[in-house]
Amino acid sequence: MMQRITILGATGSIGVSTLDVLARHPDKYRVHALSAHGRVDELAEQCRVFRPQRAVVGSAEAAQRLAALVDGLGIDVAYGERALCEIASSDDTDTVMAAIVGAAGLAPTLAAARAGKKVLLANKEALVMSGQLFMDAVREHEATLLPIDSEHNAIFQSLPAHYARGPQAAGVAKILLTASGGPFLNRAVETLSNVTPDEACKHPNWSMGRKISVDSATMMNKGLEVIEAHWLFGAPAEQIEVVIHPQSVIHSMVSYVDGSVLAQLGNPDMRTPIAHALAYPERIESGVAQLDLTQTASLQFHRPDFGRFPCLALAFDALRAGGTAPALLNAANEVAVQAFLERRIGFRDIDRVVRGVMDDVAHGAAASIEAVMAQDARAREAAQRLVAGLQGAPAPTRAAAQVAG
Ligand code: NAD
Ligand code: MG
Fold first, then answer.
1. Most informative mutation of 6, 119, 134, 208 for ligand 1 (most atoms within 8 A of CB)
2. Assigned CATH topology for domain 3-147
3. What is the per-residue burial (b if ≥16 Cβ within 10 Å, else e) of 230-240?
4. What is the best residue among 84, 212, 227, 251 to mutate for testing ligand 1's pocket, by most ligand atoms within 8 Å of CB?
5. DSSP 155-218
6. In which order are the strands placed within the sheet that holds 3-8?
7. Which residues pair with 175 in a beta bridge?
8. Residue 401 above 60 pLDDT?
């Protein structure tokens, strides 16, 4: 049977890798729908190649342009969040690749879960924001949730099939989340204030979108992944350990009470977890070269330096605080990263903004998606205020601006 796929965020790094894997198996997969935000020309090209039934973009103007570009192909073009939710929950799709970046992916990813789809989750921010609510929707509507994030996919592969019964029952002692440490692992800390967006996006091992690349440089990405692991695998913060492994050959590990450690290894290429999740429980070819162990002689591991990477500590704090704290953390980070990418604030201001928001905005219970979205909005407002304060301030008075903001 053909698996029918919707890709949310088809023009992004994960979206493009997903289409690359699908193109290798035209006998197994058919694209039902594709979405993009603004890159209309790229989406039009994907439409010409993959012939989806539906395509969704971010605005009326983009939809008009796309409709003209794909005229005659019989593709239904729409725009906006409601259309994203429709292609994610349609009866004509079996599997949804959730690869929109940031909070914008929450509504359609949740719609896919509520429609009981097979959800391939790359959009970690959606799960970080809505944690329990999202997992409840998956259970209630019998959706299948498979992790695309390489670490979580590796952990999933290293857990027993009966894992649903939880870490204790499965004899899991710890989840060991590996982290490359990003481009600034060894850079002198005092020079970090001056790094540029391009330097921050130059990841040593992975090629990714700009937001997650900056998150990798601050290690907020690993922080979000700790929260993601908590929800996916039902493990408390104390059972999740971050291990710096600069080579990114081991994608994460599970250590068991009997002393065994199981790991998943491979070349750092997202097509491996994408192919794994698409075909699960079978295996398909992904286009990724086999790992040559003789070329990976030296594997290093060490503990993260929370002083160098304060965002990692902030994420652990948010997880322990619970409720809407992770949603606040995520929203503040999205605003700060965007401001950094637009050169409105410096690299070290990212953690200042996130900490400022965590201190200023009270978190509450994550009782509903509406409550989460309200907190997300409050955090964004507070973060914008802090960014505005930092923008006006010369570097030495920035700490003071944060307190005043
Ligand atoms: P990207 O920036 O390359 O692509 C993002 C996609 O989302 C694009 O298709 C874009 O059009 C769409 N998009 C952006 N803003 C949108 C909005 N407001 N509304 C609707 N669509 C919007 O990002 P990426 O690197 O592919 O990452 C996507 C997600 O996958 C992120 O959540 C990231 O954390 C996660 N992820 C990525 C990688 C990776 O290797 N790139 C690895 C693990 C997890
Ligand atoms: Mg990852």
1. 208
2. Rossmann fold (3.40.50)
3. bbbbbbebebb
4. 212
5. HHHHS-TTGGG-TTTTTEEEEEEEE---TTSSS-GGGGGG--HHHHT--SS----HHHHHHHHH
6. 76-79, 54-57, 29-35, 3-8, 95-98, 118-121, 144-147
7. 240, 254
8. no
State pLDDT tens for residues 39-64: 999 999 999 999 999 999 999 999 99
Relative to the alpha carbon of 124, which ligand is closest?
1
- Ligand 1 nearest atom to the CA of residue 221, by list position: 34
Q: Which residue's CA is the closest to the ligand 1 atom numbered 18?
A: 104
> Nearest bound ligand to CA 229?
2
**If you take atom 42 of ligand 1, which residue's CA is the nearest one?**
149
Contact 98 CB / ligand 1 (< 6 Å): no
Question: How many Cα atoms are found within 13 Å in the side-chain-facing hemisphere of 187?
Answer: 16
List the beta bridge partners of residue 97.
7, 120
What's the pLDDT tens digit per position in 162-212?
Answer: 888 788 889 999 999 999 999 999 999 999 999 999 999 998 888 899 999
Calculate Rg over the CA atoms of the chain.
Answer: 21
Output the DSSP codes for 346-394. -TTHHHHHHHHHHHHSPP----SHHHHHHHHHHHHHHHHHHHHHHHHS-
Residue spans of the domains in the chain: they are 3-147, 148-181+219-320
Distance of CA 377 to the CA centre of its chain: 20
Contact 36 CB / ligand 1 (< 6 Å): yes
Cα distances (Å, whole numbers) of residue 235 to 175, 227, 228, 273? 8, 9, 10, 21
What are the residues whose beta carbons fall under 8 Å from the beta carbon of 193, sequence distance 6 or more?
346, 347, 348, 395
For the Cβ of 219 lying below 6 angstroms from any atom of ligand 1, the answer is no
The CA 216 to ligand 2 mean position distance, Å, reads 9
